[in-house]
Amino acid sequence: MENVSLIEVLVIMSLTALTAMAAHWGKAVFHDGIRPIIPEYLEGRMKRTELASISFGLSIGFIVSVGISFAVSFDLLNPWLLFLPTDILGVIATRWWMAAALGGAWGLVALFGLTGVQTVFAMLPVDIFSALGELSTPVLVAFTAFPIIAILYQFGWVRALISGFIVLIVRQLLPVVGGNFTDNADANLEQASQLAGITLPADGDFAAKVNALTDAAGNNQQIQDLISQATNNFSLGTTISSFTMQIAVLMLMGMILLVGFAIRKDLKNKVAISVDTDEESLFDARTKRIYKGIPILAGIGALLAIAANMGLMTGSEVSGPILQQAWQATGQEQADLLQSAAIADFIRGISFIPLIVTTALATGVYGVVGLTFVFPIGYLLPNPFLAGIAGAVWICLEIIALRGIGRFLQRFPSLREASDNIRSSMNSMIELALFIGGAFAAMVMAPEAVGLSLTIYILLYAANEGLGRPVMKLAAGPVAIILTGIILNVLYFLQLV
Amino acid sequence: MLRIVIGGLKKDVIERSAKAAGGDKVQVTVTSDFDAAKKIKAGDADYYLGACNSGGGAALSVCIGILGYSNCSTVAKNGKKPNPAEIEKLVSEGKIAFGMSVEGIEEAVPLIVNSLLKKNNLA
């Protein structure tokens, strides 16, 4: 992000200009709470100024505490920072071109504000940025636990305990399975070395052994086959036993258990689901209204996927810290981390489907980021061009599927409930993880004065609690650690550290 | 007896606070926001309580869609403490769905439940 290119400026500016226009026309807004109020305005029960002041009141806390602190902590733009303001700007603007101009201007401010903060931080004696990378490990670990906590909320401690056990066993089995493959790889190499008539260094690493063998193999087909078999086994083995793989598998296992419990419950007590005809016709009318927004929404979808692909943006609080690590890494490690980030956002997206779909169907106003799946699409695709096309197509598919998803959710009320519980538990786990991650970061920031930095961090966090949480809990960890970094720098300048 | 339905985030915390405040004068049902709003519309429940991060987002969005904006109100925004006088006023205005931030649940729910009991002459 250090050198912002013209392309990046254009992508972000067109994105925020479009989202402001979407908000202006009442086609889509980011804030879930503003969506249901839009029809009040469109149908003449509320004035534009009133709507604007409500949007401002609902959003400002999020923009300041979550939007800014996450952008600085993760070194990436995020939807709260970009789209909550464009909701407000779009609503304030009395003409569509004013909305576009204001939105575009905000994109510019956000992008250069973030780069400006980075430049200032880079000049400081105590390095805040690299310390903030410490936030990612606890977030990744916390992620494996959240489906289990959701099971605890919804189905009680017995099932949560059983699920916890299953997940732990699978976690311990993964390295065993992975170890099997790496053992096979070693056996392949051993065989190849016998054929080639060379002895391999016992403690050499895998790549070195392969290089030695490839040199010795020459044109011997059998040895070459063995080498390629070994390479395959080795990469499978390391992938399976890797940290990111463990997290992905555990999260999926937990989710499968949770969804399984929910569906079983609904199938067991088949309540007669009342189909309200008023509701049906309301939903149909609202769906048609969303269809009309497809062109602008597809454009936004394309730009979102491009921004995510270029490493400008994170989709959520859960993928942010993972992406931050990913964009600093290279090669296979980067691909693995991007995959984890995609899985994290994918599952977060699933938990938001019921909320976004039902509010969209009830109001005829869509979310500017849709069902949030355009972000994982952006992380995974190889280049911005493909990401853009896939993002646009995906948003169209989502909108076409809305009505069907709505009907499906009516049939399985426990799934709706599960999604509330996932969101509750994800919230609690990320709060906890960011708090612990902040403590890690405090220790990295001042290796010679760990006691001091931890004390400052904990005092700041506790002060927020004591003051009745003026900074919301989700952002309290990141805000406290950024302030700790700034205070440490001040103390350093005063030569007190 | 007041029939209260609960949706949104941290439903267990709301349920506990509502039961603690209302005792046997309230009947508390935990469900999803969508189902809760439909129950109220059908006359199977009297009041809705829900929480989300901001207090005005996911907590109320489905209720506003189904019950109408004028029946819903946010009582505790994030970063601000719930105000007893304001809650009293909203209850007397006849609001039936109340949204709050997850941080504000423990303070806001007893205030709302007590005001509701007073309004319905159950206190």
From TrEMBL, chain A:
Superkingdom of origin organism: Bacteria
Lineage: Bacteria, Bacillati, Bacillota, Bacilli, Bacillales
Native source species: Jeotgalibacillus soli
Protein name, UniProt field: Uncharacterized protein
Membrane-crossing segments per the record: 6-30, 51-74, 135-153, 243-263, 352-379, 385-406, 432-462, 474-494
Keywords recorded for this protein, A-Z: Membrane, Transmembrane, Transmembrane helix
Record-linked InterPro entries: Uncharacterised_YhfT (IPR019733)
Pfam families: YhfT (PF10797)
UniProtKB/TrEMBL annotation, chain B:
A Pfam match: DUF2620
Domain of life: Bacteria
Protein name: DUF2620 domain-containing protein
